[in-house]
Design a protein that fits this description.
mainly alpha
Length: 55
């Protein structure tokens, strides 16, 4: 699967610290897990739309 996050956005959010290259992959993996759980929750509730409440 492709990267979900943009590195520039992560760097901007990290403010005054450097971001290690391994951090991007780990964060991207966590985001994918979160999205997959939200999709499952939406499906379990009979919806085809993922909403903020699914997070």
């Amino acid at each position: 699967m492709a990267d979900v996050l943009k590195k520039s956005g992560v760097r901007d959010e990290a403010d005054d610290v450097n971001v290690g290259s391994d951090f991007y992959e780990a964060l991207d993996d966590r985001v994918k897990e979160l999205v997959n759980r939200a999709v499952e929750r939406a499906k379990n509730n009979g919806r085809k739309t993922v909403k903020a409440r699914d997070v």
